[in-house]
């Protein structure tokens, strides 16, 4: 596995944990509420995030292009964060 994939797996594992170390906070939310909202947002992000289009690459490129998998993960992270914010959460500072 490449390091980007390791980072993604680690990020998902951390996001899935609603332990006190969760990066999300909401006034009055119990750990159980945070876990439930976290789980709902993860499921929503996986199902609702747009899937990137697959383009055939021809020729040479001097800039790095995101792979389809990297773009899919990026979309899911963005949807997850938006979902948590819509539920009234903010990131811990």
Structure description:
- It contains three helices and two strands, in the order αβααβ.
- The protein is elongated, with a radius of gyration of 16 Å.
- It is mainly α and 93 residues long.
- The protein has a two-stranded antiparallel sheet with strand order 1-2.
- The longest helix has 19 residues, at 68-86.
- The model has no long low-confidence stretch (mean pLDDT 77).
- Helix 2 packs across helix 3.
- It has helices spanning 3-16, 31-48, 68-86; strands spanning 24-25, 90-91.
Keywords:
mainly alpha, 4% strand, 93 residues
Write the layout of secondary structure elements.
Elements: H1 3-16, E1 24-25, H2 31-48, H3 68-86, E2 90-91
Antiparallel strand pairs: 1-2
Strand arrangement, major sheet: 1-2
Number of strands: 2
Q: Which sequence of SSEs, written as H and E, runs from N to C?
A: HEHHE
End-to-end span in angstroms?
Answer: 31 Å
- Give the structural class: mainly alpha
Low-pLDDT stretches are: none
Number of helices: 3
Overall body shape: elongated
Percent of sequence in beta strands: under 5%
Task: Characterize the main sheet.
Answer: 2 strands, antiparallel
Radius of gyration: 16 Å
Q: What share of the residues lie within helices?
A: 40-55%
What oligomeric state is this? Answer: single chain
């Amino acid at each position: 596995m490449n390091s980007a994939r390791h980072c993604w797996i680690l990020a998902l594992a951390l996001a899935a944990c609603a332990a006190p170390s969760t990066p999300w906070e909401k006034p009055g939310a119990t750990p159980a509420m945070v876990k439930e909202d976290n789980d709902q947002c993860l499921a929503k992000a996986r199902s609702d995030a747009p899937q990137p289009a697959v383009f055939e690459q021809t020729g040479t490129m001097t800039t790095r292009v995101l792979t389809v998998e990297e773009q899919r993960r990026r979309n899911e992270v963005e949807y997850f964060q938006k979902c948590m914010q819509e539920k009234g959460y903010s990131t811990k500072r």
